[in-house]
Amino acid sequence: MLNKKKSAIVLVSGGMDSALTAAFAFKKYDLAFLHVNYGQKTEKRELQAFHDIAKYFGVKKKLIVDIGYLKKIGRSSLTDKKIKISKADIKSKKIPTSYVPFRNANILAIATSWAEVIKAEKIFIGAVEEDSSGYPDCRKKFFESYNKMINLGTKPDSKIEIVTPVIGFNKKEIVLKSFELNSPVHLTWSCYKNNDIACGVCDSCALRLRGFQQAGKKDPVSYKVIKNYL
Amino acid sequence: MLNKKKSAIVLVSGGMDSALTAAFAFKKYDLAFLHVNYGQKTEKRELQAFHDIAKYFGVKKKLIVDIGYLKKIGRSSLTDKKIKISKADIKSKKIPTSYVPFRNANILAIATSWAEVIKAEKIFIGAVEEDSSGYPDCRKKFFESYNKMINLGTKPDSKIEIVTPVIGFNKKEIVLKSFELNSPVHLTWSCYKNNDIACGVCDSCALRLRGFQQAGKKDPVSYKVIKNYL
Q1: Contact residues on chain A for B113, CB-CB shorter than 8 A
Q2: Residues from B in contact with A at Cβ < 8 Å
Q3: Tens digits of residue pLDDT in B130-166
Q4: ipTM score here?
């Protein structure tokens, strides 16, 4: 069978946003999945979600990259054992302790290197501007600037572009769209803290639960604690 | 003793260009050295040069990062055992086989993460536009674009800028300036192929030797073969 679809890389962390992003890309492209371990505390659980989601979409071309140096560089609660994962303060405008300095730029550089080798034309990333309040490298204008830099830093015949299909969504819209596009929400993992049952109280759990509550949907994942975030 | 100098990171590969770049930065900044292993064949020898150069400049703050994933992604003669290091064709305008896709973008992303943590204001990189014929991520306009991207992708109070003091130099000028600024040329390593005595025939050796020959200087490093490249 001839496959004439063009190739695209999807950054799949294992969370809900990246699974939905894969669902968007699935329609048009032949997919390759990239997962990055950066020494986060929930590394193993996220990797399992990555493989589950790849299986769901029938993706065989997978690359798992270890960038433990981000842990070495430190200063994020996601990677530094000395910093506690803070409880959610989802109304705060401050940059959260979970921020890994310049993480997306590192991950996208890897994706671009791979894209150049496998001749992928698009790199899909499930960044969300609104809900990622305060992460500077999650903003639309950051990705626009990154695309210009890619254009200048790759071979002239490479046409690689970062695509952010969920950038403008809030978590409620992510939830609704996930159901609409049959994204495998049940296979995803969002908790920053636990590897077995989601804690329900870290930033990431809180944002996810609020999204489901706003959308009037039930989250198929189990939680230790479910608060009302409405 | 109070040290009021501002902090800067220097990317030190171990080669002549990066040593000279360190010599430029040394005058004004408190230095931190970053070295990246990306699975290149001369990894160990370059790392030794890195430590020797750090000692020469009295730099104690060092970070060595392993990005073996570039080897996994492959397709460069510097990292892929299946591709032979080609003999120098320094007049060619084609992108050489030693090109590692998007390598500088990967390395600079790491440097920027580190700079944000240690509050360094500058990242010095010894990229050379002319002699690196055909490496798209060695060009001045690539670094200008990267700086804009950094500005958008880091915290608002971060003021990180990439500086390329030798970008406009040819190898002859690198050699002359190295002697002028007392850069430790004797401690550097440029050969892409060997770990003991430089081969003298790979792209990197050929460019280096031609530079010394044009400058009318003797290279303190030993070679297996020394051709006339004038």
Answers
A1: 70, 73, 100-103, 105-106
A2: 63, 65-70, 72-75, 95, 100-106, 108-110, 112-114, 116-117, 136-137, 139, 141-142, 145-146, 148-150, 152-156
A3: 755 567 888 999 999 999 999 999 988 889 999 999 9
A4: 0.85
Q: Around Cβ B124, how many Cβ atoms within 10 Å?
A: 28
Task: Give bridge partners of residue B34 from the DSSP assignment.
Answer: B11, B63
d(Cα A140, Cα A146) in Å, to the nearest integer? 10
Closest to B227 (Cα-Cα) out of B201, B196, B204, B207: B201
Q: Is B39 left (phi over 0), alpha (psi -120 to 50) or beta?
A: left
| Shortest Cα–Cα distance, A132 to chain B (Å) | 13
Contact status, residue B171 vs residue B131, Cβ threshold 8 Å:
yes
Instruction: Give the pTM.
Output: 0.87
Gap from A52 CA to chain B (nearest CA, Å): 22
Spans of chain A, pLDDT less than 70: 1-3, 74-100, 131-134
**Token representation of residue A229:** 């975030």
- Put simply, the answer to whether B142 touches A152 (Cβ < 8 Å) is yes
Rounded Cα–Cα distance for residues B69 and B55 (Å): 29
Distance (Å) from the alpha carbon of A224 to chain B's nearest alpha carbon: 33
Q: Which residue of B has its CA nearest to A152?
A: B142
| Residue in A closest to B96 by C-alpha | A155
At residue B162, φ and ψ (nearest 5 deg) are -85, 135
